[in-house]
Amino acid sequence: MDDTLKNTLLFPWKNASSFMSGEEIAAADAYCRGYIAFLNAVKTEREAVREGIRIAEKNGFVPWQTGAAFAPGDKVYFNQRDKALILCIAGKRPLTEGISIVAAHLDSPRLDLKLRPLYEEAGAAFFDTHYYGMVKAYQWTGIPLALHGYIVPKDGQGINVCIGEAPEDPVLFIADLLPHLAKAQMELPGKEMVKAEDLDVLAGLSPCPGESGDGAVKLNILRILYEKYGVTEGDLVSAELSVVPAFPARDLGLDRSMVGGYGQDDKVCAYPAMDALFSLTEPPDYCACVVFADKEETGSLGMTGMSSNFFDSFIKELATTQGGAGSGEEKGRRALGNSLCISADVNTAFYHLYADVFDPHYEAALNHGVVLFRYWGQGGKDHTNDAHAETVAVLRKILDDSGVLWQTGEGGRVDAEESGTLSRFFASLNIPSIDLGVPLLSMHSPFEAAAKADIYMAYRAFTAFFKRA
């Protein structure tokens, strides 16, 4: 067969090492330095929103004010209760002709402290936790942990908490059972080896100065928190405190081809989405919008999750600034219906040692580009969007016309998977939506891996999407 026809007919997998030039590979490496810095600065959604606003304001964005103008090139942001964020650049076309939306989530699996978390047992103080999102409990033992969060005392003045990240900080720890005594434990199913209720964080051993007996160690931990943050045990009831891995993100692999670190689901998509928006040097044809949501790992419920109405309410406010017939509500509905959304979420990467849960013919792989996937739910495509063919075709053209390396992904064998993304929530607003993101190894673990080439291609893909005509 003629090679030209052969190449036309086939849709081959392409490895970044052969697809990208040496200059592009170097650019991907340089690009990921900023990403690693971002990843180390934002281990919770509140931290990510604060950092996102800081960078946005540096790039000329201002807080949205109800009733303000929204003319081509205007840059605004909307802060949804400090845990979700919308960034928008007004396009040349009227808002009612549609919006280019890239949506990612900021929350990651972690261990949250309970309402009354601190207790003392056998001469040691512990923080009791409740896991957030899908985790393997045994992965959280025997590693250094940091305490992040936000405490709101009765006076309403919030206090940011971070212990365990600075080199001089102490870290926390969940003890595991030594293998010499773990024969019975290691014969249990993985989910039962460490019970979720036993993920209690060792906080300290020293009694409070001048105190002894039961409760003295717990009192000392409370003293330390009071001296550092001015909070009491009662204030921990009105707090959002989480335990996360204390180690930093960094280059992974002897060739430095990957990034390893905590929280890459889904900040590995959030960062390039935000960065692509900031890279626009002139007003795009369509309004360009980045949505950072919360609560995705727990079903997207709550005021800062995508089941809330904060996004469509904001769009309808923007729509009131547009001329033409109809109310703001009507213009907002037209704007949403004419929009296009990329749900920027990670997908799993094939790994040969776990081949039995993958479809080896169709799974995404590290270093093969950004992953396009039409659906990711469970069973018979439950709890998923299943993007329309027309939407897929539009995105294929954008990626190919821009020279973006991309691949497809399934997310595991049929009936082996159980997951979901933000695309279904945007589809419920009558917005054509599709998933496109970075493949990960060890997703939801305390240390995830992504290829630098794939992260860079996500940035390239989102930039091309925002520039669509």
TrEMBL record:
User: Which InterPro entries would you find in this protein's record?
Assistant: Peptidase_M18 (IPR001948), Peptidase_M18_dom2 (IPR023358)
- Can you supply a Gene Ontology BP term from the record? proteolysis
> What do the Gene Ontology cellular component annotations say?
cytoplasm
Q: Tell me yes or no: is Transport among this UniProt entry's keywords.
A: no
Q: What family does this chain come from, according to its entry? A: Belongs to the peptidase M18 family.
What NCBIfam families would the database entry show?
PRK02256.1 (NF002600)
Q: Which GO terms describe its molecular function?
A: aminopeptidase activity; metallopeptidase activity; zinc ion binding
User: Is Zinc among the key words of this record?
Assistant: yes
Annotated organism of origin: Treponema primitia (strain ATCC BAA-887 / DSM 12427 / ZAS-2)
Cofactors, names only = Zn(2+)
UniProt keyword terms in alphabetical order: Aminopeptidase, Hydrolase, Metal-binding, Metalloprotease, Protease, Zinc
EC numbers = 3.4.11.-
What name is this protein filed under?
M18 family aminopeptidase
